[in-house]
Amino acid sequence: PEDIRVYEFAEACGKSPAEVITVLFGLGMMVTKNDFLKQDELEILGEEFGIEVTVKDALEDVNYVEDYQEEVDISHFVTRPPVVTIMGHVDHGKTSLLDKIRSSKVASGEAGGITQHISAYTIEQSGQKITFVDTPGHAAFSAMRARGADVTDIVIIVVAADDGVMPQTEEVISHAKASGCPIIVAVNKMDKETANMDMVKAQMAEREMTPVDWGGDVEFIGVSAHTGMGIDDLLENILLQAEILELKADPKAKVKAAVVEASLEKGRGPVATVIVQNGILRLGDNIVCDTTYGRVKAITNDLGKPVKELGLSETGTVLGLNEVPAAGAIMVGQDSDKEARDIATKRAEHARAKELSKSTKVSLEEMSGLI
Ligand code: GDP
Ligand code: MG
């Protein structure tokens, strides 16, 4: 990890930056005093100066995602609702299915609150909640996982019953398998005359996705986003999988939520759609989210109604951050606004310095190419 700069290193071992630069220069490594040292450079310097160098993440002290685990107390654990992500080949009906599930479960009086585009929502089935996320694509899904924002508990792969397995279906299968989440296959467009469930099952079985009724362990549910057929089946199956997973979280911990989407809205400022992973997100909470921070000014649920809080696995949008965070960023509650600001500022400075260091290195390389 490039987390220590030349001058910081020099300071830490009582040398001048010039001494450090000279050593590296002698070995053909061009650095300036503000550059971050790479692992191999650190090793060389350690040998040269006869000191032991241990690499520690400079952000360790600023409440990074990995450190969050300390906030969680398993004696507080309660069952939380599952978070489901729908993936599949383009035009196989992901959006239609998400819309149909939502409209079939939202009480008619609330239906007016359904906005056209929504990246996450929570429904109730048999008195139990399920949260659905519409990821912009499987690349984003994997990127979020890599950042530690793996909100997904269960993956639904949508395959059109008339089209069968397509190139993106194959990609999705590998992403879904890599996630380690249980997978349910929703065979969509079963209302079509050309629908062929057995063809889909055979194609999927060839890719190690063998249906339960063929002796495998993957549930295949026939559905239609147009007629609504099979949707209850699908939802019951999700609840069954969730039960097996025994999903737990600590509602008393400092709040931690993953950003699934964020944007700048006219008149409202930065707006982030989040899914709560631990704790409860409340109005007035001081939060830090990557390099952004703020105080929760307003929370809107997925029906566009103002609410005071969001519980475990629930989703809604949050107002109050000073800037727009990236999708996949993790929002964590802080004890004071000062703490939130300090952490965000430190991270922002760090990120900027890293960028700067990259650009100087590039220009040096470019220069050496010219000489
Ligand atoms: P996405 O790209 O996976 O999000 O797919 P869409 O939801 O946008 O659907 C692509 C097309 O398939 C649209 O024209 C839908 O109307 C159609 N479609 C989606 N689901 C069904 C279904 O269950 N039956 C039929 N007949 N058409 C469907
Ligand atoms: Mg779509």
TrEMBL record:
Region of interest called G-domain, as start-end residue ranges on this chain: 82-230
Keyword GTP-binding: yes
Molecular functions (GO terms): GTP binding; GTPase activity; translation initiation factor activity
Residues the entry annotates as binding GTP: 88-95, 134-138, 188-191
Stretches assigned to coiled coil: none
Domain Tr-type G: 79-246
Statement: the UniProt record of this protein carries the keyword Plastid: no
GO cellular component entries: cytosol
Major location (coarse): cytoplasm
Keywords: Cytoplasm, GTP-binding, Initiation factor, Nucleotide-binding, Protein biosynthesis
Subcellular location field: Cytoplasm
Family recorded in the similarity comment: Belongs to the TRAFAC class translation factor GTPase superfamily. Classic translation factor GTPase family. IF-2 subfamily.
Function: One of the essential components for the initiation of protein synthesis. Protects formylmethionyl-tRNA from spontaneous hydrolysis and promotes its binding to the 30S ribosomal subunits. Also involved in the hydrolysis of GTP during the formation of the 70S ribosomal complex.
Record-given protein name: Translation initiation factor IF-2
Organism encoding this protein: Halarcobacter ebronensis
Full-protein residues shown: 299 to 669 of 879
